């Protein structure tokens, strides 16, 4: 549409607009970098399997689960995930596992970039100092949450609507409370995220992942939280 951004000083790219409005049938998003773009922390083989196989399977299974529910096909992913308690079984479990899998992987892949010594800045850096003591102390706690998550799951940095930060863990493909918190980023600690390259050394993977965080995107999510 030519008048999509009429009256706006800053026009968001089309990709960001369609991201928010995406509904059934969901389509896997391409990585926002090349498959070898996160070397040496994550190699291309790991990203190919993780993105092209694991993430794609969650997308396919979510679409299959929604195929017989036309009334849910107009809902965004977030709308589906905050209304799980209204769904009948077995749909609820299918959307919880596969819708969560899609949501979590899209944020995970979108929250990384090539390791170039990036660190937080601006409002988010100030909030980290306020809520965790320092960036270094935050890193220790984030690493502990990720390495210490028993079994398969995720460790997240989330913000309250007022801007208070916290680190949370979720199991399997569960999401945090999306009505009350704004996820800034997360780390996948399922073995499939790192096993090809790191085998059982989850701590080494998490240490590397800390260098991949795309702080500019996290800062934008933090500043735009609502
Ligand atoms: Mn994964």
Describe it for me?
45% of the residues lie in helices and 10% in strands. With 226 residues, it is mainly α. It has a domain at 122-223: minor pseudopilin epsh fold, CATH 3.55.40. A three-stranded antiparallel beta sheet has the order 2-1-3. The longest helix is centred in the N-terminal third of the chain and has 23 residues, at 44-66. The radius of gyration is 18 Å and the shape is globular. The protein starts with 13 loop residues before the first helix and ends with a helix. The model has no long low-confidence stretch (mean pLDDT 93). The chain binds manganese (II) ion. Manganese (II) ion is lined by residues 50, 54, 105, 188, 190, 192-193.
Q: Which structural traits does this protein have?
A:
single chain, 226 residues, mainly alpha, minor pseudopilin epsh fold, three-stranded antiparallel β-sheet, binds manganese (II) ion
């Amino acid at each position: 549409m030519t008048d999509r951004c009429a009256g706006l000083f800053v026009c968001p790219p089309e990709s960001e607009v369609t991201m928010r409005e995406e509904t059934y049938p969901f389509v896997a998003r391409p990585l926002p970098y090349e498959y070898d773009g996160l070397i040496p922390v994550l190699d291309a083989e790991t990203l190919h399997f993780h993105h092209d196989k694991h993430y794609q399977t969650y997308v396919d299974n979510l679409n299959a689960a929604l195929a017989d529910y036309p009334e849910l096909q107009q809902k965004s992913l977030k709308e589906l995930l905050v209304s799980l308690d209204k769904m009948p079984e077995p749909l609820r479990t299918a959307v919880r596992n596969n819708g969560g899998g899609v949501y979590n992987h899209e944020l995970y892949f979108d929250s990384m970039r090539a390791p170039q010594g990036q660190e937080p800045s601006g409002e988010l850096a100030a909030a980290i100092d306020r809520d965790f003591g320092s960036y270094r102390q935050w890193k220790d706690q984030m690493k502990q949450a990720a390495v210490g998550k028993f079994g398969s799951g995720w460790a997240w940095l989330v913000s309250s609507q007022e801007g208070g930060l916290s680190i949370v863990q979720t199991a399997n493909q569960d999401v945090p409370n999306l009505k009350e918190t704004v996820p800034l980023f997360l780390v996948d600690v399922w073995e499939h995220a790192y096993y090809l390259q790191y085998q059982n050394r989850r701590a080494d993977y998490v240490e590397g992942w800390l260098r991949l965080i795309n702080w500019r995107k996290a800062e934008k999510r933090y500043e735009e939280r609502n």
